[in-house]
Every structure is written in structure tokens, then in C-alpha cells.
Amino acid sequence: MAHALNLTLKIRQDATAKATLAQIKADFATKIQPAIDAALRESEIVHFARVLVIDDLYLQVITEYDGDHVAYTDFFRRKLPQVFGLLFSLAEQPIDRSALGDSNAFFEFSQKLQVRSLGDASDGDKDGEGNVAGYLFSAYGNREVREIKASLNG
Amino acid sequence: MPALDNIQGLVTQRYAYPLARHFLLAVRSVDAARECVRNWLPNVTRASADLSNRPEPLLNIGVTWEGLAALIPADRFAGAESSFPADFRKPPPQPMAGDWNGRFAGSAVHVFVCIHCRSEPGLEAASTQIRQAFAAGFNELQPNAEGEPAITARSLGGRKLHFGFLDGISEPAVNWGDVANRPDLVDMRQFLLGYWSETTQSFPRSGPWAELARDGSYGAFQWIGQDVARFEQFLTANAARLAPDLPLAEAREWLAAKMMGRWRDGTPMALSPDKPDPALVTATDFGYADDPTGRRCPLTAHVRLANPRDQPLRDLVIPTVPPGGPRLLRRGLPYGPELAGEVDDGVDRGLVGLFFCSNLRAQFFMVMNWINKADFSTVLDVHRLRWQDMLMGDRTTPGAVLEGAVFTAGGEVPLHDLPQLLHWKGTLLLLFPGLTGLAEIAHSTPA
């Protein structure tokens, strides 16, 4: 069954962060979204993905994805370093820029931002820390993106 | 450039000794434990050691994350957690973690001492010496309730393992000297810590913990039971159906080779799919690019998953593994007596293995994942992404499909109900520090 990424960062409330956030909002559809879209498509493991800003206080990246947590994280770190550099620069305790090139630091940072959903995964799925993941409903059982796409095309 | 006299010998070379014993130790008295390690530092076998006169014992020491925490004073240990990767700090997942015969948890192990010997008297003498020396600071954890309490491995003759195949044929040739322009050799950064690079990342990356780990290597120690009777029964049950034109004995060998990807004498299926060839038993110069359907070597044969060679990887996988794919340095010997025939005698037997690498996630766990879910390569289509290693897969993996396929003269034929042939008795994730790092651990005092 897919895993849930509920990456949630608290946005720093200073002028620099506010200006960056405004720029992200302005550029998202035309510049950021196409880059994310291409990487998601290439990965073939992400079911759904979206980016939210809540009252300019929180930014969320929410996805449902297949497979290994670290492989997933590292793929997008390598594919979208500028996007994540921009998004993570908003955090109250931003990631060190050099960590964007460091698979371990990037994974640890993303784990700190992961919010566990309520409840427990009914299939015993584990989160990136090896603990029982939060509840996630799937209408497709444990079918993966590639299997679903093949079914649709078949 | 790494210094060979700072690297533990077992990392760089496979000891050609028939006997190995592995002691699992828990710190009882911290000061005394450090002193024990200090006293034995001169006895640790280094990569630079001259083994031509076959000294015994050859001795190497590994430390678990819990061991580092126990041996290094708490005020100095601060910061280690953010430097060492979670894959080393966290316990391995089940069923790989095992339960050590139900006698203790893997997290109870602090220090791992292994000795390799060429004679039984030498093994017993060295064991007595080690037990006496380490008793001052450690309790010996005893995974075996009866007989010899430590895990002892004994050669079955040469490099033969319990399923009858030869071990260690495709040992990576490593560029230990970090010599420039040697694309024919595997980068030593895949095995040694302290040499982080953008493409071959290892951790700790920098700072004092990277210095402590420099020239060390992570070693995944695995104690694995093998169900030889079940394997042989599976061959008998399926061989005649798959290869009806061959005599049963030959058909069984052919099927065994299809599952492994090499004949039991070592001949690669990729080079000689119809019969073993004495000239090819140690052949390593081959690939799978010209066999994308598995006509010669099945797509989920063990060797093809554990080392895909030139087989194309999925886009998702490429950036997450070292250039050339993940490699491991394997050190293994069998334990338990050889089984004659295919009737289960109830005797425990299997493999004691150490798998060295610099990044447990990108190498060791990556290969283990591929063995349990062969979805890493573009040659495996969507209908086969839940297939497993026909020989070594863990059939309890959620969603696993216990199917395989082999090509016969009549085309591709399915294999159903692949059996569970391995039982993980225990796995430890160890740091085998360089000699400097080991000395630093053994000499550490509160700040």
C-alpha cells in the first residue's frame, strides 16, 4: 500500500521569508509546477501530490507514494534541489544549503517535517523511522502506480 | 588516500581459512571493556598484514551503534546521532533481524569479535584466550543453548555452501589505492568510510565522527538458516516438468542453475546456459544486456538480482545507488553439517555472512530490497514487479508474488509456489572501524 508524505513546515515570519513565499506563489504554476510535474512523472511511484500554504503560516507537501522511503526522498532531492532549497528556506529552522547535496541530512530534515496522520496503518506499514505509520485509506489495496497505470491501459 | 595498515583486513580480503568463530559481547564494565579492546588492538588483523605464512587466529572487531554508545562517554557521544545514518542506528527490520534463537535481542550486542583459523586446535586455543581476555569487561551472549555457545562456521570444502553452489566468485575488484583513471575497478568509497563524495555518499560525512570512522566499513553480519531439504525437494518436484528431455539428475542441476544464475560449479548461465563448463567456473566478465528476457539467465535468478551488472535500472533507482550499481564485499562460511539427499534431518545448517559497504541504505538494504522485490530494472515489466529472487527471496514480504519463469526449448515456462528457503536467525549492523578509530574508542575518556 502507498505511504503518505505529510511534510509540514512552519513558515518563518520575517521579511525575507515572506518575500520568498510571495515569489513561490507567483511562480508556482508557471515555473515550479512544471519541474515538479516532470519529476513526479519520471518517478512512476507517486500516486498524488500537492503543495499547500495555510494562512501564510504553514507550507505542506502532501503525496502518496510507493516503495522505499529513502529512495523516494533521495530521488526528489536529486531531481528537484532548487525547488526543495526554495521551499525549505521558508522553515523556522531552515536546512543548511549544503545539506541539499547530502542524502542523509536531507532525509533526516524531511523526517523532522513529517506529520504522522492519526490512527494506525491497517496493513502494518512502517514510516521512515521504522515505526507503525499513521492511518491511510486506499481504495486500491496495495496496488502500485505502475500496476494501476497498466490496468488502465490494458 | 586510505592507508592499508589502518583498515581491518577482513574488509579488504577474503581469508582463505576454513574456520571462523563469532563472539557477541555485551559491555559489563565500561572501563574494563575499553581496556580489553585496547589490549587486543595489536592483535587485530590489518589489511596490510602478510598472511603468506598463514598465521592464526586472524582477528577483527566490529562495534554496534549500542556498542559505540556504551563505550564512548556520554558527554563525548553527543552529536553522534546526527552524524551516523539511521540505517546503522536503527535495528534492522524483521524478519531479517531474527531473534538469535530466542535468547537475546540484537540490540544487546555491543562488540563483535570474529576469528578465522586454519585448524580446530587453533580455533579452540584462540577461543579460550579471547574468552579469558574479554571476560573482565564483557558478558558473552550465547546464541547457542547447547554445545559451543558462539556462532562457528566451518568450510564444507573449498568455497562450497549448503545449496551446493560456490561462494565469492564475483568479488568486486576494488581500487583501494584510489588510483586515478581506473574505471575497471570499483571505487573504494563504496566500502570505506571517511571519503564522502557527491556520487558515493557515506556517513558520517565530516567532522570528528567522520575522523573516527575513517577507513572503517559497515558490515552487516547475518546468521541465516538454509532449508536444504526443501530446496532439493523443490528441484525434484519441478525439474522433470520443466526439462522432460533430460535425465532427472541433469534436469535438477539445470533447474538449480536457473534459480541461482550459475551452475553449482560456478559456470554463469549467461555464458553457458545448457551445461557447466570447467573453463568458465570463475568467469566474471559477462553481462545481461544481450539477454533482456532472461532466455539464458532468468530475470529473477539470484546472481542477476544481487549484481545486475549492465542490466538497465529504472530512472527512480539510478540516482539512489553508487555509479555502477551497489556492490558488497561478501565474507561467508557455512555452518552445520552437509545434508546428504533431500530428506530433512532436522539439523540446523546455513550461512554465516558479513557484507561490507560504506552506505547500508544505498548498498546492503538496496540489494536486499531487490532480492525481495525485483522492481528495480526496466527489464522486469509491470506484471513481474512483485517477483522475488527465486532462491533467496523472503516469501513473507507483503504483496510478494511467489512466481518465476525459466526458458526451455519450448519457450518461457512459469515456476509456481517458490518456497521459503532461508530463515534469518540474526542480523547485526556493525561498524568495523579503522585501527585509529578503534583505538580512539578504546582510549576514550570523559571530556
Put the structure in a nutshell:
The complex is a heterodimer of chains A (154) and B (447). Chain A is built from five helices and three strands. Chain A has helices at 15-43, 69-79, 81-88, 103-113, 145-153, and strands spanning 3-10, 46-54, 58-65.
Which structural class best describes the helix and strand composition of chain A? alpha+beta
Q: What is the H/E string of chain B?
A: HEHEHHHHEHEEEEHEHHHEEHEEEH
The coarse silhouette of chain B is globular
Q: Cα-atom Rg of chain B, whole angstroms?
A: 22 Å
First and last CA, distance of chain B: 30 Å
- Unreliable residue stretches of chain A: none
**Discrete helix count of chain A:** 5
Briefly note the structural class of the backbone of chain B: alpha+beta
List the helices and strands and how they pair.
The complex is a heterodimer of chains A (154) and B (447).
Chain A: E1 3-10, H1 15-43, E2 46-54, E3 58-65, H2 69-79, H3 81-88, H4 103-113, H5 145-153
Antiparallel strand pairs in A: 1-3, 2-3
Helix pairs in contact in A: 2-4
Chain B: H1 9-12, E1 19-27, H2 30-40, E2 58-63, H3 65-71, H4 74-77, H5 80-83, H6 86-89, E3 111-117, H7 120-134, E4 138-141, E5 151-154, E6 174-175, E7 186-187, H8 208-213, E8 217-226, H9 228-242, H10 248-260, H11 302-306, E9 329-335, E10 350-357, H12 360-372, E11 404-408, E12 411-415, E13 422-432, H13 435-443
Parallel strand pairs in B: 6-7
Antiparallel strand pairs in B: 1-3, 1-4, 1-5, 2-3, 8-10, 8-13, 9-10, 11-12
Structure description:
The complex is a heterodimer of chains A (154) and B (447). Chain A is of the alpha+beta class. Chain A has helices at residues 15-43, 69-79, 81-88, 103-113, 145-153; strands spanning 3-10, 46-54, 58-65. In chain A, a hairpin with a 3-residue loop joins strand 2 (46-54) and strand 3 (58-65). The mean pLDDT of chain A is 93. Chain B has 2 domains: 4-224 and 427-443, no CATH class; 228-322 and 366-421, no CATH class. Chain B contains 13 helices and 13 strands. In chain B, a hairpin with a 2-residue loop joins strand 11 (404-408) and strand 12. In chain B, helix 2 packs antiparallel against helix 13 and helix 9 packs across helix 10. Chain B starts with 8 loop residues before the first helix and ends with a helix. Classes of the chains: A alpha+beta (154), B alpha+beta (447).
